Amino acid sequence: EAGVTQFPSHSVIEKGQTVTLRCDPISGHDNLYWYRRVMGKEIKFLLHFVKESKQDESGMPNNRFLAERTGGTYSTLKVQPAELEDSGVYFCASSLSRDRGGYGYTFGSGTRLTVV
Amino acid sequence: GENVEQHPSTLSVQEGDSAVIKCTYSDSASNYFPWYKQELGKGPQLIIDIRSNVGEKKDQRIAVTLNKTAKHFSLHITETQPEDSAVYFCAATMGGYQKVTFGTGTKLQVIP
Fold it and tell me: Is the pLDDT of residue A108 over 70?
């Protein structure tokens, strides 16, 4: 089966610009997560979708970040306007629902965002 | 919330030697502890996991131990090979589809 796909793989934008990251989860995975790793630190949770609904968005840093998952398929994460501290690697992951034995994520390769 | 600490941050071993990475967690409600390996340019990949009702789990050269009382868990890699070189992350979660709290990562270098 195809894995979790993220694009772009790299993005360099200027401070104040807008960037949209996209994630295509594994087909049939209801759960979709966004995580971020900044400057070699830990991988931090941003938010969790179950199908098209936001289950937990407690990790979203501020209102410059907007995540959507229309139709419960792919998801986008928009940063507007981008700030220098938003630089990092953004990972998307997906998993089966718990009642289908879902434990553990499958991660995408990430989008490396650099804000200059 | 949960806090996971991971040590060491870097680890160099000779090929064939063993490597041990240690983590502690703070929330006693956590009951699922996955370990991820991240190779350059790739996303983290689940390599082994352990649930709180188990003290040890082994898969070929990789083993994980869990001490619930002390809130410690460790990854053991035996007979290391150059392809084991990567960044390893420990993590803790209350399981199911709950969010996962990661450690800061250990960069393992296996020297041929």
Answer: yes
